[in-house]
Amino acid sequence: MKRVQILAVTVFVLALAFYYTVNWVYGEKPADIRYLDKQIAKLNESLITAQILSNELDRVYNLFEENLAESKSDEVAGDASMNFLNSLTMTLDSLGVTTIYMRPKPRITGRISIETPYDLEIRCNYKQFGVLMAKLESSLRLIQVNEFHVKNGIERLKNTKDENILAEQNIELKISTLTLLKGKKNG
Predict the structure, then answer these.
(1) Which of 3, 72, 119, 185 fits a 20 to 30 Å CA distance from 148?
(2) Which 8-state DSSP code applies to residue 75?
(3) pLDDT greater than 90 at residue 119
(4) How far apart are CA 81 and CA 1, in angstroms?
(5) What is the DSSP secondary-structure string of 119-133?
(6) How far apart are CA 83 and CA 185, in angstroms?
(7) How far apart are CA 120 and CA 80, in angstroms?
(8) What per-residue confidence (pLDDT) applies to 187?
(9) What mean pLDDT do residues 88-108 have?
């Protein structure tokens, strides 16, 4: 019986020692560690956000550099920017897209921007057209696709039996480049 009492007292003393150690010796450290882990997670999110903003700001800077005109008479704001036409022609050629026609239209001048429209007709397959749209979107110039029309009517299917000819479509595109005007007077 005495052994059981000694064992019970020993277990009780060890339990108290364990409770004291967990709550008072180590008790604050896990809470501090959890708090610091939360702080580290917040700082990592801030760092990632800052890195993304840095990359995006570089892209924004390049967009402004390519699309900001000092005045309405600036080369970037011209009716049909030769740089843009050359770039578009090179893009079409690199994709193997046939250009049927490319017509610049008169520019539309707004208070803070100039829109220069272009009418194009191209001949390509759907994959080439998708890649062209992606390249227009990723261009440094601000390019707006106003409208496109794929000429794939039923009469074309009736008149053509060759599948290779049917794979390519004539597509009419109406696109515009946008040029931002710098300053308040925009003269």
Answers:
(1) 72
(2) G
(3) yes
(4) 104
(5) EEEEEE-HHHHHHHH
(6) 26
(7) 13
(8) 45
(9) 91
| pLDDT of res. 146 | 92
174, two tokens: 């109406």
Q: Can you tell me the distance from the alpha carbon of 70 to that of 65, in angstroms, rounded to the nearest whole number?
A: 11
Residue 116 has pLDDT above 90, yes or no: no
Tokens encoding 176: 């515009």
Using only the alpha carbons of the chain, give its radius of gyration.
34
DSSP assignment letter at 76: G
pLDDT tens string 128-179: 999 999 999 888 888 899 999 988 777 766 777 777 777 788 899 999 988 8
Amino acid, single-letter form, for residue 187 = G
Both tokens assigned to 73: 């008479």
Count other Cβ atoms within 10 Å, centred on residue 48.
10
Q: Which CATH class is domain 75-181?
A: alpha beta
User: Are residues 115 and 108 in contact, defined by beta-carbon separation less than 8 angstroms?
Assistant: yes
- The pairing of strands 68-69 and 142-151 is unpaired
Q: What does DSSP assign to residue 38? A: H
Give the C-alpha separation, 63 to 138, whole Å: 10
